[in-house]
Amino acid sequence: MTAQTLERTRRRRSRGTDLSGWGGRGLGAVVLGVFLVFFAVPLLWLLIAVTKSGGDLVRSGAFTPGSVAGLVENWHDLFAFQSGAVGTWLVNSVMYSLGALVLTLLVSVPAGYVLALVRFPGRRLLLVVTLVVMLMPSTALVLPVFLEMSLLGLVGNPLSVILPFSFYPFGVYLAFIYFSTSIPADLLAAARLDGCSEMQVFLRVAVPLAAPVVALVGFFSFVQNWNNYFLPFVMLPASSTYPMQVGLTTLLSSTPAFNPSAAGSDSVQLSTLALATVISVLPVLVVFLFSQRFLVAGLTAGGTKE
Predict the structure, then answer these.
(1) Secondary structure of residue 193 in the 3-state scheme
(2) How far, CA to CA in Å, does 279 sit from each of 46, 82, 245, 276?
(3) 183-209 per-position pLDDT tens digit
(4) Which strand (E) or helix (H) includes residue 259?
(5) Number of H helices, E strands in the chain
(6) What is the value of pTM for the model shown?
């Protein structure tokens, strides 16, 4: 085969590769475009809906912008609902989520540290149980937890939500993985040789080095607690103790578009319900924006053995 023939063959193969590459990129762009439209269009409608009155939401186009006056009116109507119930629900959500977050960090991080670095009888069994519970759907645990809280007389009490929220096996597993792979054992041994007790080794050496995974556990715990609906719905019968996610169902049932019998002084419009939905998401978004640097570090932690 001559050099010219080889060159022509090489060009044909290169052209075919380029075409297949462009085809693959084009298909990927189409798939990403479909997903973008699927997720972005409802979100865009939701953000526009909060700026419209109930009548404008029906009469104007779906993506026709509203006005600042419409947003202010929806804000007033939302926080006037049931004499300020929405503000109470938001405060409750913050209290439940932050209370459970503190307890989660106080339990999950030390538990992961002990499972990773301390050898004791039953350690492997405890780790297996942690993994099994982590894989169980949280809804499957609601009934046993309710019976337990009822036995303790805590149903209707904020502790009936905060204490179960604090049980976070996924956080234990994340801490276990991090301390197993990213904390040099020689560093901890050197601290012990310098006279540190086990508590001092954990607090002064291990925890500062584990800041990324602590932030990761805290973020996941906060998001799960903030978005949890079923457990507070079962545990808290009074509206004054609802978190925001449970309160949204009250707003939904008070919207004539979903419940025709809800017309009255306590009814809300679709645009007001849309504003409540946006407000319920904002705390998680704010926490994510301020902690994303630590989240990236935490997600990559434990990927390599130091």
Answers:
(1) helix
(2) 11, 17, 11, 5
(3) 888 888 888 888 888 888 888 888 888
(4) none
(5) 15, 0
(6) 0.81
